[in-house]
Each structure stands twice: as structure tokens, then as C-alpha cells.
Amino acid sequence: MSSQPKRPATKLVPVPSTNRIPERDADKAPILECRHLGIDFGGLTAVNEFDMAIGRTEIAGLIGPNGAGKTTVFNLLTKVYQPTRGTILLDGKDTHGMNTAQVNKAGIARTFQNIRLFDNLSVEDNVKLGLHNHIRYGMFSGIFRLPSYWKEEKIAHERAMELLSIFDMQGMAAAKAGSLPYGAQRRLEIVRALGTNPSLLLLDEPAAGMNPSETAELMENIVRIRDTFQIAILLIEHDMSLVMGICEGICVLNFGEIIAKGTPEDIQNDPEVIRAYLGSKSEEG
Fold this sequence. Notes:
Number of domains: 2
CATH architecture of the largest domain: 3-Layer(aba) Sandwich
Order of helices and strands: EEEEEHEEHEHHHHEHEHEEHH
Mean pLDDT: 88
CATH topology of the largest domain: Rossmann fold
Radius of gyration: 19 Å
Number of helices: 10
């Protein structure tokens, strides 16, 4: 079994708001900043006054009990839902009015609770779909297989194999995605998201369904992805050993509102968090 990576102690420093980011990122604006973010569905407030900042190379966690609003926040960040109120700044730019494709092109990629691969396509082709932001040949070149098409296809193949090598999956490139074991499908979804060249990667329960050995390996790989690509990662996860092991800043949601923010040490010692989440044996979702 892989030993879990030791999370180095992180000092969080204030940014020009009520939020904090890792000290090493303090000389640059946060890659993401949410201000007073909220959404209502009819008369129900699902998320309210959500404020969070993420440093440019931070691994951050978003936790909370079932129904707390965690996936709703991801849907707001990726514009699956348009906010009822508040502001989302991505690399300092307001994403107001952007749609899902535009936000993805601007730098946010995500995975999902329920794996969303193209099961009948090969592993490599699934990764190539993630490279769509960087393909430069036009429809005409693609239809008639002009030299520009083959040049871009060669580049896409090399890039796909490079990304697959992160998880030692290059030997599976020709296999159908739907034939992979569950853990490998989870890893493939992360690789495909990386293909869009994000500056912020959102991972929605990446360790769901994994055994302890796979989870330990995932932890190592999340840190390696951050270090290799120098990007920020925000994850929703119920495996507290993973969250406390690699996350530097953690935000805790309950009933759509933030009840605590801080380092893993802050969160573990917060009485309200212990009551609402860490002390419960029934959290999920």
C-alpha cells in the first residue's frame, strides 16, 4: 500500500477580503474569489453568502454534510447554474454572463460525482475530447484529412499519452473507457479534465468508491498534479484522511452557508464543525 503523502504545514495569509490563501501565493491575486455568492431555487435558498478565495497553487477542500450545497457551489463555479447574486472572479475576471463552455475555456475544469466518460470510445479518444480547446484545424481540414489535420492529430496523440502517463495509464490508451475498472475510470476523468489546460481543477468526490490503497495513491497524484502543472485544485470529499492530509485551506458548508474556514488544524478543532459534520456518522453526498 502506498504511504500517504505528508502535507507540509501551511500558513494562510489574508487577501484583500475576508479570505486567506497560502503564503507562497500571496504575491499574486487568487485564481478564484467568490464574493457573497448565492442561489435560490424558487423560494429555497440553496447557497447563501458564499465567500472563498483559492491561491494559484493551493489544494483546497470543500466539505460538509449531505445537502450542504457543495455540488451546487461547483455548479455555480462552472455555470451549470447562474448565480442569483454575488460575484465569481476567475483570475481576476468576473465570470458574469459566461456559459459553461466559456468558463471551461477561461480555466476551470471539473470531474463529477457520477463518472461521465464516453464508454464506447477509447481511453485516448476520451482524453482527446478534453483537448478541444487546443485543436487548431478546421472542419474542412478534418473532413478531407489535410496535412494540418494530421499535424494536429499527432500533437493531440502525444499530449494524450503524456497526460495518461501521470496515472501510468498509457498502456490502456486503446481500451474502451467503459471496460476499465472503476478506479481507472475515476483517474481517466481527471486526465480528461487536465486536457483542457485548466488553472483551477474541481474534483467532485474523487476518492468515491476507492479502497484505502487507491485513495493513498490518489492523494499522491493530486499533489503531483498540482506541482507538475502549477495549478489550483478544489475538491469535495468525504474521506477526511484525504482532506486533512493534502488540503491547505478548507471551507465547511452547512445548509448552504459557510460555518468555518481555515487550515485543517483550524477545522479539526472547530466545535461547530465537529457538531455539524466531523462528529456525524451519517454524512454523505
